[in-house]
Amino acid sequence: MPKCTIANVDVANKTVLMRVDFNVPLDADGRVTDDRRVRMALPSIESVLQRNGRVILMSHLGRPEGQPDSKFSLKPAAVCLGELLNRDVKFATDTVGPDAQSQSAALENGDVLVLENLRFQPEEKKGDAGFAQTLANMADVYCNDAFGTCHREHASMVAVPEAMAGKPRVVGFLVEKEIKYLTDVISTPDRPFVAILGGAKVSDKINVIEKLLTICDHVLVGGAMAYTFALATGGRVGDSLVEPDKTDLALKLINDAGEKLKLPVDTHCGDDFSGDCKKTVVLAGTIPDGYEGLDIGPETARAFAAIVENAKTVVWNGPMGVFEMPPFDAGTQAIAEAIARSDSTSIIGGGDSAAAVQQLGFADRVSHVSTGGGASLAMLEGKAFKAVDLLDDC
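Above: the chain's sequence. Below: its structure in C-alpha cell form.
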C-alpha cells in the first residue's frame, strides 16, 4: 500500500518532527556551496507552515564521529534554509539538550527550528531508544523526508518513529517521489528498459546488476568496473583500477547474462591520471602497460547512446569515466545527452551520477535525479527499508 504523506495529516497547531537530509557541502568559511538538498526539502516544510503547523528539522552532516565538531555544524544549513524560505529559522545549539528542549517547547505556528547535527550524538548511529524517545517527545507528527538515509536504521530513521507509535508517521514529498520512481516505475517499466551502470567496483553493485539483469532488456557497463570484466575474459588492463578477486564473479555475470549485458568495445586511456597526460584509444582488453583506462571509448559511447536513445525506461547509476576531468568526461556526456534526447522515463541514481548530470547541464532534461546514492542502489536491489515500512499506510 502507498504510504501516507505529510499532505494527509492535519498539522494545524501541531509540531512536526521532520527528518531531512541537509548533508550539504560547506566551504572553508562554513558556507553552503550546493543548496540542492535543502531546496529538495522545501515542499514538505512549506506544506506544514502553510497549514499553520510548526516544524522541527533534524539531520546529519558529515562524519563527526559521535561528538560535537564545529566544522560539521548544521547552522550554515539553517541559515541557507532561512534565505530560501525568506523567514527566520531558529537554530538549537544542541540536539536533545537544554537549548533544543526549550526552543522546541516555545515554538509557535509558522516557526521552524533546526536541531544541531544528529551525529554529534553517538546514540544516533546506535539507534538508541532513549535518545529517540527524547526527540519523539518534542512533536505530534513524524515525517521522513530524508531518502538518502532511508537504508540506515539510525535512531532518527527508525527508533524515533517507533517511539511515536500512535501518532501520525508519514513520508515527505521527496521520499514519496523517490519511492514512486525507484519502485513503482521499475516494477512496471515501459520497454525497452535499459540500465546503465558505472563507477569503480563490481563488488559495490553486484546485487543491483543481478537484479537488473532479471528485469531489464539491456544492462550497459562502463566506468572502472568494466576493467574487471575485461580481466575476467583474459584481457589486458594495464594500470587500470580493477578487482582481481572479483573476476570469477564478473565471468559468472557474463555467462549468465547473455546478450543483455553490454560491455565496452574500446577504451580511452592515459599514461597518468591527469587531463594533459598522453592519451590513446584501444580496443577493450588491450590496454598497454603504463596506461590506465579512464573512460569508455568513442565506439562504445556511440553504441551505448544508440541503445539509450531507443529506450522507454532508463536507470543510470555510475559515470562512464572520470567525468570531472576532460577529455575523459566524453563517455559520460554521451550517455547524458542520449538520455536527454530519448523519449524515456529516466531515473538518475544519486552520488556521482547525480553530480554528473548536474555538472553537464542535463538535470532538467531527465525525469528524476535521486538524492541518495546508497539508498537508490538498495531500493533498486529490492531491499526492504524499515525506515519506510513502519510508517503509516494510506
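The chain has a mean pLDDT of 94.
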